Amino acid sequence: MRRRLSLAVDRFPIAGRFTIARGSRTEAAVVTAVIEDGPSRGRGECVPYARYGETLDGVMATIERRRDAIERGAGRVDLLELLPPGAARNALDCALWDLEAKQAGVAAHVLAGIDRLRPVTTAFTISLGEPQVMAAAATAAAHRPILKIKLGAPSGDPQRIAAVRAAAPDSILLVDANEGWRPDTLAENLRACAEAGVALVEQPLPADDDRMLAAMERPLAICADESVHTRDGLGSLRDRYDAVNIKLDKAGGLTEALLLAAEAERLGLAIMVGCMVGSSLAMAPAMLLTPKARFVDLDGPLLLAADRPEGLTYDGSLVFPPTATLWG
After folding, report:
1. Are 46 and 59 in contact (CB under 8 A)?
2. DSSP 8-state symbol, 179
3. Beta-carbon-side half-sphere exposure of residue 129 (alpha carbons within 13 Å)
4. According to its UniProt record, which cofactors does this protein need (predicted)?
5. How many whole angstroms separate alpha carbon 52 and alpha carbon 243?
6. Taking residues 130-158, what's their average pLDDT?
7. What is the model's pLDDT at position 270?
8. Of 102, 247, 250, 292, which is the active-site residue?
9. Domain boundary pick from 76, 108, 140
10. Same-domain status, 138 and 87
């Protein structure tokens, strides 16, 4: 009997509005892949990302072009050749991990060679807005140990980070500029972050214009996000970045993400585990990267008005490993 692949678009309303330097949205629209093989069933979720030219229809079409290979038994290693990195490959790769775990009767983290998964503390995201709006959001979230602050506006980011720090004096602050800063604002913005005690800044410059990071003295740790997707070329980033943000949708699945994490460790780069805004089904495979991570940013379900009913358990900012009912 051949496998059976089915696809669906699932939509999850966001609690309020999620805003970054590139725009705002009120809904997380994801593609869910289900691979059935006899009595066993594996699921994977991906979030098409417009920054990389991805759309719901485009991701669905990309997966459909490989339907025959998947249903004939292609495995995770085969996917590395069949599909490029990105959301489509992620959905299939994670579904295959889940399927393998169900067929073996062994948790996915054990299949990956990970002895044990433990609860971890995730960052909680504060959307980009006017300083007073961000300060109000930070005040409401000041009990959380780690806050991730979205910046990257054309002006006013020093005032934003100062306002957030005043509102959340005890939280560890991470900043994500989403490629929004430019060479003429970089030093001022980094200085403001350093003065606010920010622990790390993600992707301050556009991915295709980040060379000046290698030539400047960096007052705090800089993390590559849009500048890194897979292992390819990772070594060339060592002089520009101190850390890498690994996201399954960028890497094209957990298989590549684990290899990327190993290579980052070999090169001496710190690891951050990140996510797009999706449901717990998208976060669950990323939990396998958390034992290697200095920072974890898997707060997608916390930003939703409603998660999948069998979603991850969050206790404040503490996120627990998935149950087999959800994934793995």
Report:
1. yes
2. T
3. 17
4. Mg(2+)
5. 21
6. 97
7. 98
8. 247
9. 108
10. no
- Specify the long-range contacts of residues 135-140, CB closer than 8 Å, at least 24 apart: 135/163, 135/164, 135/166, 135/167, 136/167, 138/163, 138/164, 138/167, 138/168, 138/171, 139/167, 139/168
CA distances from 251 to 59, 95, 255 (A): 15, 15, 9
* 3-state SS assignment for residue 118: coil
Token pair for residue 69? 């290979």
> Pick the catalytic residue: 102, 148, 150, 250?
150
Report the pLDDT averaged over residues 306-321: 96
Please give the residue range of the domain that contains residue 144: 120-319
212 and 286 part of one domain: yes
Write out the binding residues for Mg(2+): 176, 202, 225
Does residue 293 fall inside a structural domain? yes
Assign residue 157 the CATH number of its domain: 3.20.20.120
Residue 1 pLDDT exceeds 70: no
- Residue where the block lists tokens 């994490």: 261
Q: Report whether 295 contacts 247 (CB < 8 A).
A: no
How many angstroms separate the first and last alpha carbons of the chain?
23
Contact call for residues 116 and 290 (beta carbons, < 8 A): no
Tell me whether residue 250 is one of the annotated catalytic residues: no
Angle at Cα 292 formed by Cα 312 and Cα 149, nearest 5°?
Answer: 65
* Residue of 24, 32, 98 whose CA lies nearest to 59: 32
Residues 95 and 176 in one domain: no
Q: How far apart are CA 155 and CA 322, in angstroms?
A: 41
Q: Which two tokens stand for residue 225?
A: 């996000």
pLDDT digits over 2-60, tens only? 899 999 999 999 988 887 877 778 899 999 999 999 999 999 999 999 999 999 999 99
Number of CB atoms found within 10 A of residue 183's CB:
13
Binding residues: 176, 202, 225
Same domain, 102 and 137: no
DSSP 229: S
